[in-house]
């Protein structure tokens, strides 16, 4: 894993927006977007559960680094208790818009 502490004030994966799209043709899409630098990642998913989303995020974080915060949108299928535990265990702020 990369060390995120050496990055400047506004860093890669500081805040990622997380959304779900679909299904389209039986496939849903986990969409991650970072505002700075502009970085999208789209992960096709046959089954969308909180667990499958968390597993996909683990893979993204292995390839990059942990964000400081995640803002989920359009994710009504989530168990926010499980997702909040996942974020808290990694010291990631979970931002939920009201």
From TrEMBL:
Transmembrane segments: 12-32
Keywords, in A-Z order: Membrane, Transmembrane, Transmembrane helix
A GO molecular function held by the record: nucleic acid binding
Recorded superkingdom: Eukaryota
Name of the protein this chain belongs to: Integrase catalytic domain-containing protein
InterPro entries named in the record: RNaseH_sf
Organism, scientific name: Hymenolepis diminuta (Rat tapeworm)
């Amino acid at each position: 894993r990369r060390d995120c502490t050496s990055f400047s004030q506004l860093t890669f994966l500081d805040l990622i927006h997380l959304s779900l799209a679909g299904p389209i043709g039986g496939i849903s899409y986990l969409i991650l977007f970072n505002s700075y630098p502009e970085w999208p990642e789209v992960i096709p998913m046959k089954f969308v559960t909180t667990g499958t989303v968390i597993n996909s995020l683990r893979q993204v974080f292995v390839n990059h680094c942990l964000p400081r915060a995640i803002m989920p949108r359009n994710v009504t299928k989530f168990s926010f208790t499980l997702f909040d535990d996942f974020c808290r265990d990694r010291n990631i702020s979970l931002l939920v818009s009201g």
